[in-house]
Specification:
Blueprint: E1 2-7, H1 11-22, E2 28-30, E3 45-46, E4 56-57, H2 58-71, E5 75-77, E6 81-85, E7 91-95, E8 100-108, E9 112-114, E10 130-131, H3 134-137, E11 145-149, H4 153-162, E12 168-172, H5 182-189, E13 194-197, E14 200-206, E15 213-218, E16 224-228, E17 231-234, E18 238-240, E19 271-273, H6 285-309, H7 327-332
Parallel strand pairs: 1-2, 1-8, 2-5, 8-19, 10-17, 11-12, 11-17, 12-13
Antiparallel strand pairs: 3-4, 6-7, 7-8, 9-18, 14-15, 15-16
Helix pairs in contact: 1-2, 1-6, 4-5
The structure holds flavin-adenine dinucleotide.
């Protein structure tokens, strides 16, 4: 049985792996079979991760973070967790290959997925004009004409933020009214650089190597027209990847995994969560990495207390005998 299993391979999981490996916990990282490296694998230049004044390519950054974790003893497996059993002191995760791994503690860092429009060109031009993150990519669109798709608070926030860089920001929305809160709407309406395109759906994204425009379909008349653009920000929502633990861990009203205050402790002792899967607000590589650090330190502390009592095996339930059933929480009181 392992001491620690880490699920995920984005900045949160791999930073947790660096800390856990350096603490001699020999963590097993379940990285995913096809999406190893997380969201930064889908982007080109990352200009806001500390330590890279000349910027770094997303995949290169993730490769380096993984190398750092492996150098200290983390073991990375390219497979998907298909189910978990966190019911007892021994945590089990089952992989797509059929293998099951057991550990005394688990860090859950499966990230979140930006909702996609689901049209051709969206994936192909990702990082080449199509983006889901104004904070990450707004800087690349100085004096450009761009559009934001969406009608909620985050779309208004992204559009307003993007006017710091772009010369013109269209907000493309399927309906003739917004879902966004009144204050966010008013701020967007008052901004001279923002123009609303109502009753319109993006049905195609134009461009070979970079976005040159979109095809809009009028949701009332069905008429189609082209809108020339140099960038398209998709702001139609974000779903934390929690399907494995919906019935296992407590979630917040936003759908992220609930954690106790500033810690990474979930509602189940011995299960910690980190990164975008617990974060409805910031969702940046560096905040995910920091969150991974917190999770590794929490897990380390949990395991230290547990090791003093003797690690659980699949046949016993020693944790149940400990005060508060959570040795970390108990030791902090
Ligand atoms: C296009 C794009 C550009 C971005 N640019 C920037 C930027 O410039 N700067 C910045 O700071 N942030 C940027 N971000 C945001 C940043 O990528 C995320 O905030 C960060 O990656 C979150 O890290 P994470 O580790 O929580 O999750 P993720 O990076 O999403 O990683 C989660 C990992 O968990 C794995 N996983 C999920 N389910 C399972 C399972 N069942 N079994 C095994 N593995 C599983 C996934 O495959 C993935 O590898 C960008 C995001 C996108 C989409």
């Amino acid at each position: 049985m392992r001491q620690l299993i880490i699920i995920g391979s984005g900045p949160a999981a791999l930073t947790a792996a660096i800390y856990a490996a350096r603490a001699n916990l020999a963590p097993l990282v379940i990285a995913s079979s096809v999406e190893a490296g997380g969201e930064l694998m889908n982007t080109t230049e990352v200009e806001n991760f500390p330590g890279f004044p000349e910027a770094v390519q997303g995949p290169e950054l993730m490769t380096k973070i993984q190398e750092q974790a492996e150098k200290f003893g983390a073991e990375v497996v390219y497979d998907d967790v298909v189910s978990v059993d966190f019911g007892g002191p021994v945590k089990s995760v089952k992989l797509g290959s059929g293998t099951t791994h057991d550990a005394a503690a688990v860090i859950f860092a499966t990230g979140s997925a930006y909702r996609k429009i689901g049209i051709e060109g969206e994936e192909r031009l990702s990082g080449r004009g199509v983006s889901w993150c104004a904070t990450c990519d707004g800087f690349f669109f100085r004096e450009r004409t761009i559009a934001v798709v969406g009608g909620g608070d985050s779309a208004m926030e992204e559009a307003t933020f993007l006017t710091r860089f772009a010369s013109k920001v269209y907000v493309i929305h399927r309906r003739d009214e917004l879902r966004a809160s009144k204050i966010m709407q008013e701020r967007a309406f008052a901004n001279e650089k923002i123009e609303f395109v109502w009753n319109s759906a993006v049905v195609d994204i134009l461009g070979t190597d970079a976005v040159t425009g979109v095809v809009l379909e009028d949701t009332v008349t069905g008429e189609r027209r082209e809108l020339p653009l140099e960038g398209l920000f998709v702001a139609i929502g974000n779903d934390p990847r929690t399907h494995l633990v919906h019935d296992v861990l407590d979630l917040t009203p936003e759908g992220t995994i609930w954690v106790d205050g500033r810690s990474s402790r979930t509602s189940v002792p011995g299960v910690f969560a980190a990164g975008d899967v617990i974060d409805p607000t910031y969702r940046q590589a560096v905040t995910a990495a920091a969150s991974g650090t917190v999770a590794a330190l929490d897990a380390e502390h949990f395991l230290a207390v547990l090791n003093e009592a003797g690690l659980p095996t699949p046949d016993d339930d020693q944790i149940a005998g400990l005060p508060d059933a959570d040795p970390v929480a108990a030791s902090r009181h």
